[in-house]
Amino acid sequence: MTSSPVRYFAIAAFSGLLGLAATIPRAADGKPNLSGVWQGGGVSLYGDAADGTQRTYAAPVNPPPKRESIPYQAWAETKSKTFTPTDDPTLRCLLAGVPRITTMPMPLEIIQTPKEIAIAYESFHAFRIIPINDKLQHPKDLVPTWMGDSVARWDGDTLVVDVTGFNDKTWLNGTGSFHTEDLHVVERYQLNSDDTITYTATVTDPKVLTKPWITGALLRRPPNTRVEEYECIENNQDVEHMQVKK
Amino acid sequence: MKIPNRIKLLIACSGLMLSALPVTAHHSFAAEYDSKGLITLAGVISKVEWTNPHIYFYIDVKDASGSVVTWAVEGYPPNTLKRTGFTRDDLKLGDMVSVTGYKAKDSSSRVAGREITFPDGSKKFAGPAGGSAPPTDSK
Asked: Domain residues for B117?
């Protein structure tokens, strides 16, 4: 039984033996406890920002990978340049896909249990329910979707999420960053001693990329923040006022 | 992977991590507003739309000839504003306010609001600085 005090004690003792318990919060099953509200961008705006000063932070103990250009094949690079900001799916309030959703300047909440991880995003009402599945097996009846299908396993203290089953309608990040239905993303969530999560995404799509594209973000806990409603389509005036020449 | 502390410090000091992150959630600032076209408007609040994906409020601005032009001011999404301490109640119909913002590229009477000065002289930010506002994400 997971509720056995003996088991709790054994886990605590084992974690203590490794010197881990003091550094990051852990769930009852001994795994790093990722639960809580996090945000990949724009956190510095929150709090005492009335005077316009932005919050500053100490350098993170475990930086995510530096952002690099997407390694497109030549034809795909050419095609990516034919898009403009008016083509951006998120301009029309459509789901941002993975990994892009993680870098949106809005909070997300991770709810962790031993058997599954749920992530509720403020951006575009997105959610993911991610079963823990050590073999990383996806269902066989997948139909391509905006957010894909996610399964996860623990690799030591890192949560590894395997995402596939995407449609080809989302962008990977900036303008024109298209992909195909062969997109495959492997995400890694690593909880750090400075109360941050180092998020890394390895993106493969052999039809358009020359090699895997590795990207990431640092997730922080935004102060006094909960995930709230964001009904993006409510008053979306920007589409008609975009000035972009094709 | 074990990284020596010295290297960690080097990485931290180089500022790799603190690269500019997007502050607009769903559209490109540069495609809609002129980041070099900062203007200041003074007018009376005539309408407030505390809506997603952006708030809008409208101010009636008198020109030199005395005719009134209604300008639309776009700001951050409601949740973002609330978290910075700017609430719906700060925008009161009939209040005379001063707004600095970036002009729309389509020549309509619209600005991306940057700073609002309220009747009591207090100021709050409504949206990003044009020069520092990246598109939705960095490519």
From this structure: 24-132
